[in-house]
Amino acid sequence: MTDAIFSEAFVKELEAEVTATRKCLERIPESLFDWKPHEKSMTMGYLALLVAEIPKWITHMIEKSEIDFASFEHFKPTNAAELVAHFDENVKGAKKALSLIKEGELAEPFSLKNQGKLLYSSPKKENIESTINHMVHHRGQLTVYMRLNNIPVPAIYGPSADDRGF
User: Fold this and answer.
1) What pLDDT score was predicted for residue 165?
2) pTM, to two decimals
């Protein structure tokens, strides 16, 4: 298959996850940004930000061919509306970057670094695939945080107990 076909498929897969992800992010109150279920867990605010920023990773993979943990800038939302707007901006950027992929580009390497030190490198195609899955994984984690705080969980792949009134 060509890079254009994969790019189109990645855009469709990303779009399929956007609505449910946005619904989750909209429901995270800033009063719970510092909440976490366990001392080893990340805070709800950081987890929500992670979900909102994962599409930005796709843009970096395509346009910059690397992400360095030390220099990757994180947005600092103060409320759910800013978080959702950031997510929407990141999705828009990822879709644009995907639409501009040239033939052969998905075979080029993407590198993950920390303070310039290479952690791993593999083809962009593999990383884009796993990044969309990564977003879905963390969105699932976020729904558990939501449930533990009595925040209604939206329907994702079918009705949730909150949507059905259970």
Assistant:
1) 55
2) 0.94
